[in-house]
Design a protein that fits this description.
Layout: E1 4-13, E2 16-26, E3 31-36, H1 42-49, E4 57-62, E5 65-66, E6 81-84, H2 96-103, H3 108-117, H4 133-145, E7 151-155, H5 163-180, E8 183-187, E9 200-205, E10 208-213, H6 215-220, H7 225-230, E11 235-237, E12 256-258, E13 263-266, E14 273-282, E15 287-293, E16 296-302, E17 312-317, E18 323-324
Helix pairs in contact: 2-4, 4-5
Length: 325
Amino acid sequence: MSYLEVKGISKQENGIPVLSGIWFEMPEGYKIALAGETGSGKSTLLKTIGGLSQPDQGEVLMEGVRVEGPLEKLIPGHPRIAYLSQHFELRNNYRVEEILEIANKTDPGKAARIFEVCQIDHLLKRKTDKLSGGERQRIAMARALVTNPRLLLLDEPFSNLDTIHKNQMKLVVQDIWEHLGVSCVLVSHDPVDTLSWADEILVLRNGKVVQSGPPTQVYRRPADEYVAGLFGKYNLVDPAIFGLPSVTPADNQPQLFLRPDDLLVQRSAEAGIIATVKQVAFQGPYYELELEVLGHKLIAITLDRSISPGDSLSVSLNGSQLHYI
């Protein structure tokens, strides 16, 4: 028996399919991220898992017991599943400790640990109307955790945060799993945020799972251009440019898929093919290059600060396993 089972979930809204035949299983202690473009069904699936949205077909099982939907319960939701919406609310003119006490279903020691992990233990005496957006979100996270859930559902917890608070929230989400042992399913507006966190990524498009797997697989071996584009820039080129044979003799020849870091850029012309630098963009820890090779454009990255538009460089493959789309 799996910890969480999602079995054939389908749902329509106004006659339009929102979810279509979603199946997956999740072991205990696992971290799953849901990725996809806006409107792909991520939030609806998350709410369905939590018993907050009623599926038309299929069922969700939590530890072998079916999760009832809002049409079957007076108060929607599952007692061991906590759902944190990106549109969370905190009551005004309350102290933080009062807000948390109302929801608390755990012992004082564990509650104190939750406050520490969520980085809010110094905010307990503060009024809710004196909090920043990042502080309010971490308090909402703690409020969800003190209900003593077995599964935490996070709907875009990094949205609407500046870089400092976003990085802080990422640490909190990681610590929740490491120090509290709570299994998580997370939706992120920017799928790249999930690459270092998730055990598995499910990519949705038009309410269907189009690819699932470990982050490295989804990033390096995407099923198609849609999946590839969700996780950053990429190149699709004719394999012949790098002297590689065609994969199939068919007219619809698969293209070689390359992330910018799959390309090795050097000033030496001893190896690789010659490329002309068209643009150089400073990206902080590296420089992004737009190259022209035999009439084709490529995106590569480098640490070399001296490269300028118009330079000629040698470009070769860095030894990564080849993947075709």
